[in-house]
Amino acid sequence: MDTLGQHVALFTILSVIFLGAFVGAVPANAQSTEVQPSDRSFMVSLRQANSWLVPVSKEAPTRSTDAGTSNAGRDVFEGHSRLDIDLLKSAEGLGVVLPNDVSSEHQSLIDEMAGRTGDNHDRAYATIVRQAQGGLLVMAVRTRATTQNTTIRTLAHQASQMLIRTMTVLENTGKADPSAFELVTAKAQVNAVRVIGQNIEPSDRELLVLLAQHSLWQKPASRESSNRARDSKVRKVAGQLAAEHTQLTQAVTEAARQIGVDLPSEPTTEQKSWANAISSSSGEELDNMYANLSRAADGSLVSQVAHARATTKNVPVRIAAQTALTILLKHMLLLESTGLVKANSLQMTDIPALTQQKSNSSPPPQPDDSSTSVGFLTGIAVLVVAAAGTLWLVRAVGHHGEHRR
Length: 405
What we know:
By secondary structure, this protein is mostly helical. The chain has helices at about 5-20, 35-65, 65-95, 105-115, 120-145, 150-170, 200-230, 230-260, 270-280, 285-310, 315-335, 370-405.
C-alpha cells in the first residue's frame, strides 16, 4: 500500500472508532435506520396478532346479539386493519420480512370463534381479544420507550394509542372476564364473566405510589424549567408537562381515595437528586438536563404503567393507569420534540415487578454527571478529529499529487 493509501486507511479506522462513541450523543430523533432484534420482534408479533384479530373482529358484528360487542368488533377491526397497513409499509421501508400466513394456533382460534354465536360469542370475543391486546400494549409501549428507530417509534406510538382506546371499548361491553387479563399469548380459557370487584393487589398500591412520586418531582422541576430554560421550546414543553401533572395527580389521588391507599408526600431520595441537578444548572445545560432526565424517567415508568393497565382487575386503578399512560406517552413525545433527548436516555430496562422496592434502583442517566456530558464531549471530539483528519487527508492528497508531478 502506498503512502496515500496508508493515510486513507488510518483516517477511516479513526473515524469508525470515534463515530461509535458518538452515537450516544446523537439526539434520539436522529436515530432512524438500525433495526434492533427487539424492534423486529415487536413488528412480527404485531403482524401475527393482526392476522387473527382482523378476521375475527370483522365477523364479530354478524355473530353478536349485543350492540356494544358489535360496535367493539367494528372498532377493533378498523383499528388493527389501519395498523396493519402502516406496519407493512414500515416493514417494507426498513427491509424487515414479516409473516404472511396465519399460524396454526391462530387459525384454530379463528375457527373456534366462527362456531360461536350470541352471548357465547360475545363473552369469548371480548375476553380473548382484550387479553391479547393487553399483551400487545405492554410490548408496544416498551418499544415506544426504548427504540432508537424513528419509524418504529412512530408505529409503536400509534399502536399504543389504538390499543388503549379499543381495550377500553371492549371492557365497557361488560363481557370481558377480568380474571383472564394476565399477560399470556395463548388462547384464553373463557368462563362465566366475573363481576369486577375492589380487590386490592400489592401491585395496585405500588403503582399509585410510583405515579404519585413521579409527579412530586417532575411537576416542580417542569414548573421551574418553564421559567428558567434557555430554549423557548423547552420552556413551552416544561410548562405543558407541569400543567398536565396536575391532572395526573388528581387521577391518582382519586383512585387512592377509593381503594384506601396512603400516598407519599415527597418524592424518593433518588428523584430529589434529579430535581436538584436541574435546579443547580442553567442555560443550555439546564435545557439538556431537564429534557434527558425527564424523558429517561418517563421511559422507565411507562412500561410499568402499561403492565398495570393491561392486568389490573381494580377499576379505579385501571382508570388511573389509563390516564397516566396517555399522559406519559404524550410527555415522551413532547420531550423528544425539543430535539435535545439523546439516544442514551432511552431506557433499555426490563419491566420490574411492581411490588419491588425502587429505593435501590439505578437512576436514569444524568446528563451532568455522565451520559450526556460525555456524549457532548465525545461529539466535540468527533468533530475535531473529523476536521483535522479531513484537512490532513486533503494535504496528503495534495502532496501525493505534487510527488507524482
